[in-house]
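quick one: glutamine bound model?
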Amino acid sequence: MDSTPINENDQWSQKLPEWLAASKALCSEGTVASYIPELSKAPQSALGIHIMDQKGGGITAGDCGLSFTMQSISKVFTLLLALMDNGEKIVFDKVGMEPTGDNFNSMLKLELVQPGIPFNPLINAGAIVISSLIGGNGPEEKAERTLQFFRKLAHNDKLQVDLDVYRSEAESADLNRSMAYFLRDNGVLTGKVNDVLDVYFRHCSIQVRCEDLARMALVLAFDGRDPITGIRHIPRRYVQIAKTFMVTCGMYNASGEFAIDVGLPAKSGVAGGILTLVPGRYGIGVYGPALNPKGNSIAGVHLLETLSKELDWSLF
Ligand code: GLN
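yep, here:
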């Protein structure tokens, strides 16, 4: 693979608006998430993409100026922070490395399989345990360290928690609360459940645009080093771990299908974002809040599939 910067005159970058329009037509077949009530306000027909290269050049198409919350996309980066704070041993004593095949908010296997640790850090149970492992004195400091880490990776000091979404989730999180209590009873989660969940709800509610996701993804595409500034933010080994989880579990229980159809490490969130990357080349942020039955952006997945097929991006 070459690593030439995106040239605005490239034929494919000129075709992007056309591909985006074809994918956007699918939005009407999807559903905007509403189990966190505030998320239901998102515009069903929106679709935007930002593709960033190692020089910071990029191409965009569609509704990439809109803001949305990261939701589950944040789990990739809290995992990285927890690994940097604790090392692999402590983290993987408490969360596994395998896909579940269940919904992201399922607690089924916590009781079915011994030891009762979450299967992986990208399902809710695993991400809640990861939130408990983030370093800091108390929930405020942990949440603040997480926000600062995300700001650094996105190269954007303005990233903030969307407090409306945060409150909306906190008020409607019976399932996540029950899971956290269960994990505490299993001895996997230590500390106060409310404190851990507060950190979790806050990082899920960090507001971004496609460009922020693209920049964060670019750091992963270059193994933890921001190619634009040359600054290393994350050890290569931890990025390797995160990218592997993105391939095996990043698109919920459609991860296998996504690996076949698109073939790139990716993570989606229930607000409609997808973060993905072409290793050594591009960081990509997509937003399309209408979701398919598996909970991934219906138009976003379609657009990535088109790009991957047209440009031969699959790693496999
Ligand atoms: N905050 C959301 C939740 O806990 C994240 C889920 C998601 O994006 N899949 O349910």
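The domain at 11-64+210-310 is CATH 3.40.710.10 (Beta-lactamase).
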